Amino acid sequence: MRWRLSLLVVLALSVAFTQAGWARSLEELVLLAGTDALPEVRAAAGLALGELLVDSPFSDSDLEEMAVEGPSPELRAAAGTALKQRLLAAGRSLGELERLASGPTPELRAAAGPALVQAIVAAVGRGELSLEMLASSVPTGASRELRLARAEAVFLLLRAELVAPAAQAAVEAVLRGERVRVSGVELDGSLEEVRAAASDFLAGIYKFYGFLNRLQDPLADLMAVATDGSLTPEFRAAAAEALRVVFLARRARAQDVLQRLEGLLDDVWDQAQGRRNEEALRAVSAFQELLEAERAMVILTSEVAGEFTAAQRLESVARNAERMAALIGVDLAGLSRTIGAIRRDLQVIEMAVERAPDVPLELLQEWASSGATPELRKAAGAALGERFLEAGLTFDQLFELTANGPSPELRAGAGEALSRVLISMDLGEVELLRLIARHTTAFGLHPGTSLELGEALSRALARRLKEDLQT
Asked: Model-level pTM?
């Protein structure tokens, strides 16, 4: 196949890896992902390829072969990632997708998953398969991926029944390992794949209905589940996934942003009333910049507090901010009405933000380091990347935490922030490769190295590789 290049080229690239432009084509990137001596370089090439292969000249058959016969896990994973995107639009038959989901490597099997779920749902919709037959077929799947796809399809098809408040207890019972009957369909919680599908479903319920009105105190209620060692890992994982979102809520920061927006509105009005139009326009510009910079954080914080109109309200605020600029020096009464409309939207959000949690960074670090369960540690670690960046940790501080932090979860959180800092530094290939060479895990773990540090360096290099091949 086209992706198989000669060993001589492999050796030539290994010698040339410190030179600029060392991966000048997609084929060379495939070679690096498959054969480079450094795991971090293989991972970086694989991450870049996962996106680049989607629209590449490689056929679906090439990607399937690569996901099976690729010489490294990194190359097989890249091919599988690209193939997964291809299959979603390929219109393969249910039988063909089941064949792929039962294939010889986990990378190939995982690639079929999302498209297989779609195909199963469509088959039930066409009457080719009953929901009862589908549920009973879960344990007979030839691979975990096939069994999981069938279980996920069952929950998707039962969504209308399972999102009802009274049905949440049934989902939770499945996660405790029990057998439950819903609309005549048996959900067998003794099966790991059924529990995994139920976990994803319950996480979605927690993140919408829980924040809206089903959890009295999202932080406390979800912590109680995520730290309960008597529950199944899948039950705890559902709560932990919702906790990850809760940990990103920033009450104090959101309140500060909203107060600053209110202050800028005052400034716009005062300047416009005094016919200082240039100053008023500068205040509008500052308002728009602050709104754009902090919109995502304010929306998330509001939604955790149960206010799911926040995104729509801030979109309205943004439109009215444009109107403010147009009305300055033209229509003072219209400007007053527009500012009033903005204030009403902001006040609704302010009321919600007051109810939001605000977990201190120090407590998140403690939970990521020594939380009572792996699920809690993972949730805290997943939130730390964003929180470390917000706190303004330096490159050296993030590097130290990623290399030598007390737990894999904390190191992973620091590594996520570190990779984003590395990308913002716009380092070249040579500089990134030198960092990798000094801290590679190719010769084992020792002080100054960690798997999480290698992953952070790989993400930064992957970004550079992708950009270089696209220019």
From this structure: 0.89
| Tokens (6 digits) for 318 | 């943004």
Could you count the other beta carbons within 10 Å of the beta carbon of residue 315?
13
pLDDT of residue 470: 79
Angle at 198 between CA 194 and CA 201, to 5 degrees: 145
**Could you give the CA distance from residue 332 to residue 315 in angstroms, rounded to a whole number?**
23
Identity (one letter) of the amino acid at 81? Answer: T
Tokens of 179: 């057998």
What CA–CA distance (Å, rounded) separates 386 from 246?
13
Domain ranges of the chain: 158-248, 251-353, 361-470
Helix 408-424 vs helix 361-370: angle between axes, to the nearest 10 degrees?
Answer: 130
What is the spatial distance between Cα 280 and Cα 265, in angstroms, rounded to a whole number? Answer: 9
CATH architecture of 251-353: Up-down Bundle (1.20)
Pairwise CA distance, residues 213 & 268, whole Å: 37
The identity of residue 223, as a single letter, is M
Look up residue 425 and give its amino acid. Answer: M
Tokens of 145: 């991926």
Length of the chain: 471
Q: For residues 106 and 98, give the distance between their C-alpha atoms in angstroms, rounded to a whole number.
A: 13
Residue 34, classed as helix, strand or coil, is: helix
Pull the structure tokens for residue 248: 């990103």
Residue from 93, 155, 96, 152 nearest 128 by CA = 93
> Smallest Cα–Cα separation from 42: which of 458, 433, 431, 468?
458
> Which residues are 187's β-sheet partners?
180
Residues 112-131 have pLDDT tens digits of 999 999 999 999 999 999 99
